[in-house]
Design a protein that fits this description.
The complex is a heterodimer of chains A (about 425) and B (about 350). Chain A is built from 14 helices and twelve strands. Chain A is an alpha/beta fold and about 425 residues long. In chain B, α13 packs across α14. Chain B is globular and about 65 Å long. The chains are: A alpha/beta (about 425), B mainly alpha (about 350).
């Protein structure tokens, strides 16, 4: 068939008509959650691994009969980090009865905060979104349920202090992407520098960070005792390879939670032996939950993605968040077994999560009306060439400074927001 | 047939010069206007807040840029930055206690002032070189906003829009916000429809076709190029304010990056340079095709039970989308407005294929 103007027009118009209306699924006993995420623009492989872990855990729960006889059904779609698309997805999922949204994107989470608060729909902002959402009194429906960037920076610095006994007179270099996300830890680092007496030197690089060649020779010349690099995606691998090129000691190099096995493979597994990162949940395949997924989900051919990705850092973060959501649903059923299944209903459940470890995978998450961070515990892990090996037990540090910062911004939000 | 011209005789100049001389065009416009007015009561809330509202806002932005690109022939790759200036100006003014009516105009004035400064570059450079200098504007504005905590709002870089009211009506809830955006859109659309018929519009057209030829026939290109930037940026600033107040409800720097600028340029080009109707078509196509295709592929995948990885499912719509943009531009380089025009021309002389125009 020849593609002419008329057939092309007719084809696109027909596609448009079909795509506009999406048939509603038959009503079962389900708890619907919405997962509009960025599979295609910025977060790409992070999202793919996160989503795979998330879905595998939900399959595990549902295969075992769900929670209180209800299946947790996730509606997954791509928002490409684009606000109008994300708002469309949010409104569509809300209409279809979703009681929880997990956009896994900082810009999207920021844009959806006013809507989620107004509509009373729980929004999960795993290791993303607004750090001040940890203050549950200002953001009752926004649930980071994971340590925010201020806490991560606080824990890393505390680990350095544990290693060196005293940081007085030491020099810590902070290499970061020059965006609000990259600059976020600065207030905590500055406060800690003043408190502990180390010198803080910062080196911003321009986003997206695929060229950092000018920065790292300066980092080397600064002769730092510790280096913290803060970025996401391509910026992380570039930072690592530049650090290798400039001969910086790998065991003095550290990152936020956004560093994974995939990044290490890009740079060269052995070249970056010794690099430290913050961990919010256990990595690898050892945790019982991951073993159960391997046996009951992946082993039975129901896995959501390639088996090789099971147990990677981002996969496990996905499992962690699905586990937290499932636990919230369980608690909600404990409190009100007959529902109705709404945002506030699940919100009560999420607020009842206490010392939840998902069979030892998590540090013990406790969500309260005040603290949506879940306690702010994490640990430090070191790359041994094949996997990240935990260096510490779960702990938290410098929470006084973190919470001062959280309250400063949440008070601002309360003042201006609705 | 539909757009019948036979038997319609204009007996006065104003009648012939009216915006829509043919009755059918007038009926169509009235029908669309009535539908938009009644939309909150006719369509589901989802389509109101997630389709109609962004469509109206992005169409306004495309209209504003179209004045510059289609009207005066000056390319501008920083329209997102222009909107950012308007958005931040209005939000900060409202937070400082200025009534929103004034903040809205001030947003336009601020964008116009800053936009015109960068428009000065257009006096010296053309085409690709102008594209580069406007691109610089995008990055400079981005940088200034995200590096000034006083503007961006500190490390969280998000400012909530406080509750505002416009002419005594509180802009809260879906209806007031929709009607507010629609009202501004009507004003902008009427301005754009009429500007092409004024001395200003014709001067811009002369500049667009050849600026030194325009100079030869007595058009002050210096003045009109700057005026074009001023007017277009003013509209951009107002649209930025409308965008954050009635749609986004919070403002952060990443909403106005180069992606937004490119998106609006794409709307103008796909819709049709210089066409008012095209701006609406272009905005609809660029905004909603990814969403509709995504839902389509999703529905097909789950409806037919095709096992597809989430990754693939997310990327297929993008491939189709890319193919569609290329398809539209190859088959009708003059844009979507031209496709409508072809249909209209066909019916203008139907059942005959050709007629003297």
């Amino acid at each position: 068939m020849r593609l002419d103007r008329r057939t092309f027009m007719a084809g696109t118009a027909a596609a448009g008509l079909v795509g506009f209306g999406k048939p509603a699924l038959a009503q079962e006993k389900v708890v619907k959650i919405g997962m509009p995420m960025d599979f295609t623009r910025v977060y790409t492989f992070v999202t793919a691994e996160y989503s795979q872990g998330h879905r595998d855990y939900l399959t595990l729960v549902n295969e075992r009969g769900g929670v209180n006889g209800h299946k947790i059904v996730a509606d997954i779609t791509d928002h490409a980090n684009d606000i109008p698309r994300a708002i469309e997805a949010y409104e569509r999922m809300k209409r279809e009865g979703a009681v929880l949204i997990d956009p896994l994107s900082t810009p999207v989470a920021r844009a959806l905060v006013p809507r989620a608060l107004e509509d009373k729909i729980n929004m999960i902002t795993t290791l993303s979104g607004r750090s001040d959402a940890a203050d549950g009194t200002a953001f009752p429906y926004v649930m980071p349920a994971s340590p925010n960037y201020w806490t991560q920076a606080g824990i890393l610095i505390d680990y350095f202090r544990q290693q060196d006994k005293d940081l007085k007179g030491k020099k810590i270099v902070f290499v970061h992407i020059d965006t609000p996300f990259g600059r976020e830890p600065l207030p905590i680092l500055q406060a800690l520098a003043a408190k502990l007496g180390f010198t803080l030197q910062t080196f911003p690089y321009t986003p997206p960070g695929n060229d950092q060649a000018a920065i790292w020779p300066q980092v080397r010349r600064a002769r730092p005792d510790w280096v913290v690099f803060w970025g996401a995606g391509v910026g992380q691998t570039t930072a690592l390879s530049e650090a290798v090129r400039n001969g910086l000691p790998m065991d003095r190099l550290s990152s936020s939670v956004w560093l994974s096995e995939s990044d290490m493979e890009v740079v060269g597994k052995d070249a970056v032996k010794g690099v430290i990162k913050f961990e919010a949940c256990a990595g690898g395949r050892d945790p019982k939950v991951i073993q159960a997924i391997l046996k009951d989900v992946v082993g039975k051919g129901k896995g959501a993605g390639p088996e090789g990705k099971v147990g990677t850092s981002y996969y496990n973060i996905g499992v962690m968040m699905a586990a937290i959501v499932a636990e919230g649903v369980r608690k909600a059923f404990e409190k009100a077994p007959n529902g109705p299944i709404t945002g506030p209903w699940l919100n009560d459940g999420l607020h009842a999560i206490a010392n939840f470890t998902a069979d030892g995978m998590l540090p013990g998450i406790t969500v309260t009306k005040e603290d949506h961070q879940g306690g702010g515990k994490g640990r430090v892990a070191r790359w041994d060439g094949g996997k990240f090996v935990p260096q510490t037990d779960w702990f938290t540090a410098n929470q006084d400074l973190v919470w001062a910062e959280i309250r400063k911004y949440s008070a601002e939000f309360k003042k201006t927001g609705k | 047939m539909l757009y019948r011209r036979a038997g319609i005789r204009h007996t006065s100049y104003p009648k012939e010069r009216q915006l829509w001389p043919l009755p059918f065009d007038r009926y169509l416009v009235t029908a669309v206007a009535l539908f938009l007015l009644a939309a909150p009561f006719l369509v589901d809330r989802l389509y109101l807040v997630a389709y109609l509202l962004p469509w109206i806002i992005w169409s306004m932005a495309a209209l504003g840029l179209n004045l510059l690109m289609g009207g005066a022939g000056q390319i501008h790759l920083a329209y997102g930055a222009v909107m950012a200036i308007g958005a931040y100006t209005s939000v900060h003014l409202v937070r400082a206690g200025v009534p929103f009516e004034f903040a809205l105009v001030a947003a336009g004035l601020m964008s116009a002032a800053i936009g015109m400064i960068f428009g000065v570059a257009a006096l010296r450079v053309k085409a690709l070189y102008l594209a580069m200098s406007t691109l610089a504007m995008q990055y400079i504005v981005d940088f200034v906003i995200s590096h000034s905590p006083a503007i961006s709002g500190g490390t969280q870089a998000t400012i909530q829009v406080p509750p505002v009211s416009f002419l005594g009506i509180a802009l809260e809830g879906d209806l007031p916000m929709y009607y507010f955006a629609l009202a501004v859109c009507v004003v902008v659309t009427l301005f754009m429809l009429n500007v092409q018929r004024t001395a200003f519009g014709r001067a811009l057209a002369a500049v667009r076709e050849k600026d030194y030829a325009a100079e030869v026939i007595g058009v002050d290109t210096f003045k009109y190029k700057l005026l074009a930037f001023w007017t277009s940026s003013f509209i951009g600033g107002v649209v930025g304010a409308v965008l954050v107040v009635s749609y986004l409800r919070s403002v952060s720097p990443d909403q106005f990056h180069i992606e937004l600028s490119v998106q609006i340029v794409a709307m103008v080009i796909v819709g049709g340079l210089g066409s008012v109707l095209g701006s609406f078509f272009g905005a609809a196509l660029i905004l909603f095709t990814p969403i509709v295709l995504n839902n389509l592929v999703g529905a097909l995948a789950s409806g037919l039970g095709i096992a597809m990885s989430a990754d693939l499912r997310a990327h297929i719509p993008l491939m189709l989308y890319g193919a569609m943009i290329v398809g539209f531009l190859v088959l009708e380089p003059l844009g979507l407005a031209k496709i409508y025009d072809n249909v209209r021309n066909y019916f203008l002389v139907w059942p005959f294929r050709h007629a003297r125009r």
